[in-house]
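Dear H.,

Thanks for agreeing to be a second pair of eyes. The structure we're designing against is below in token form, covering all 467 positions.
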């Protein structure tokens, strides 16, 4: 009754840590929709993606899936894999065989399964970071995307005694395909010489020395099409304006913006691209000490703008200000996208389901918005306006590092960054403080780091540079 017409593609998964009993699951996926009565609907945000039926015969589970005729975007294709994964866990399946009909993208399906299966549980006894292994060979694109997401999750999850500026740099260098991308880094002396003073000020309370990493696609011209910029605060205690102790452990992932940036570069370095790109990340720790920068300090930024520090916990924007200026001066990009776990205020506004998008170009914002929906790494556009920008003015210095009152903290942070973006350069700032980490996981990811940002940008690039 449920036989599929000519199932040709197959994938198989086996439990790595074999249990005593062997429970099998057989999955058939058809690209033809079905109106059979006994099917259940799998819907997300009120849209039915597929219908399915699961039964058990001779102690073997059978799952039949019928795809609806809807947009075949990345999310709709790969969520199939995470659905199969969730059911495999639910029924303690040890062996899964998957058959799909012609019109089903089995690469996307296997990718979705493997993305959901990964958990960076390195410090647990007998952990393999995943439960299943597969015989299926992913396409180059999906394999590169998966490896880059897992690397991103690793960076974000490792604590700050393992990942700090110099170890972040060392780990990242080994991950980039140097045939396609030139990697370089600046140490404290070089950073001092260049004059990235705001970045230096943030780092000066820590014993760990700061680093800046730069990446550029090889054999490109002077002006790159796109520059990625990432905030890499490897631990953010708040500094002298110290944070409350509850939940402070989360501040090990205040470097997620830098992690997304280098993971994008890793992903791109494995592929051929029809555009040129560069990347820059600023890596520091924000710590209190006798040498730390203090509220009231005035620092001359690399751009020459004098910045008054009114809160040492508003440090991400100081790091970004200098590397945005320096990166734009050096690589002259047409478009800049920066990533930062910048403000707690963005979580008040959008929760954990959308990242905040701040953008000076409507078309760019529109493409990012649609890539967000198509990958389920969703972004919501927030305002930029001189009314907010004014809050950063002071009678005494060029620029304050926080706004006037308690409200709109994500917007004033973005306004601060915009002061350092060259005029006529397209720019998007993604505040990923709410979306980077989810204790309970989400529809596509296991518990912990979500890898937010990479799949979004992979999709964005395919749309923006389509020709
Ligand atoms: Zn902070």
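And this is the sequence the design step returned. I haven't edited it by hand at all.
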């Amino acid at each position: 009754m449920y036989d599929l017409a000519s199932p040709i593609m197959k994938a198989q998964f086996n439990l790595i840590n074999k249990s005593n009993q062997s429970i099998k699951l057989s999955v058939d996926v058809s690209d033809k929709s079905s109106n059979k009565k006994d099917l259940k609907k799998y819907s997300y945000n009120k849209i039915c993606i597929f219908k399915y039926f699961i039964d058990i015969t001779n102690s073997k589970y059978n799952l039949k899936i019928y795809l609806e005729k809807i947009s075949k975007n990345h999310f709709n294709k790969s969520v199939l894999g995470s659905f199969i994964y969730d059911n495999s866990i639910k029924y303690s399946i040890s062996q899964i065989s998957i058959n799909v009909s012609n019109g089903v993208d089995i690469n996307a399906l296997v990718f979705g399964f493997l993305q959901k299966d990964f958990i960076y549980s390195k410090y647990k006894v007998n952990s393999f970071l995943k439960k299943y292994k597969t015989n299926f060979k992913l396409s180059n694109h999906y394999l590169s995307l998966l490896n880059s997401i897992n690397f991103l999750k690793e960076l974000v999850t490792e604590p700050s005694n393992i990942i700090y500026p110099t170890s972040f740099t060392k780990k990242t260098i080994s991950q980039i395909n140097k045939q396609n991308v030139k990697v370089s880094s600046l140490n404290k002396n070089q950073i001092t010489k260049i004059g990235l003073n705001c970045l230096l000020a943030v780092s000066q309370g820590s014993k760990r020395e700061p680093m800046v990493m730069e990446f550029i696609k090889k054999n490109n011209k002077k002006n790159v099409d796109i520059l990625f910029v990432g905030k890499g605060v490897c631990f953010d205690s708040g500094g002298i304006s110290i944070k409350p102790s509850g939940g402070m452990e989360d501040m090990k992932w205040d470097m997620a913006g830098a992690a997304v940036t280098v993971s994008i570069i890793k992903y791109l370095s494995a592929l051929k691209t029809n555009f040129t790109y560069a990347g820059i990340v600023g890596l520091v720790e924000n710590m209190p000490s006798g040498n730390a920068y203090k509220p009231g300090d005035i620092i001359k930024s690399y751009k020459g703008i004098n910045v008054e520090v009114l809160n040492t916990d508003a440090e991400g924007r100081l790091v970004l200000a200098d590397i945005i200026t320096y990166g734009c001066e050096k690589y002259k990009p047409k478009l800049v996208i920066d990533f930062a776990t910048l403000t707690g205020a963005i979580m008040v506004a959008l929760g954990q389901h959308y990242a905040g998008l701040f953008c000076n170009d409507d078309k760019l914002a529109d493409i990012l918005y649609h890539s967000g929906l198509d990958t389920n790494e969703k972004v919501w556009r927030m305002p930029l306006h001189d009314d907010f920008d004014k809050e950063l003015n002071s009678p005494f210095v060029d620029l304050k590092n926080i706004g006037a009152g308690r409200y709109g903290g994500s917007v004033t942070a973005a306004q601060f960054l915009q002061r350092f973006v060259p005029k006529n350069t397209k720019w998007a700032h993604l505040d990923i403080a709410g979306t980077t980490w989810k204790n309970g996981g989400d529809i596509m990811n296991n518990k912990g780091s979500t890898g937010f940002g990479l799949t979004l940008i992979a999709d964005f690039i395919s749309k923006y540079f389509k020709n």
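Two observations from my side: The mean pLDDT is 95. Residues 236, 238, 286, 313, 315-316 surround zinc ion (CB under 6 Å).

Warmly,
E.
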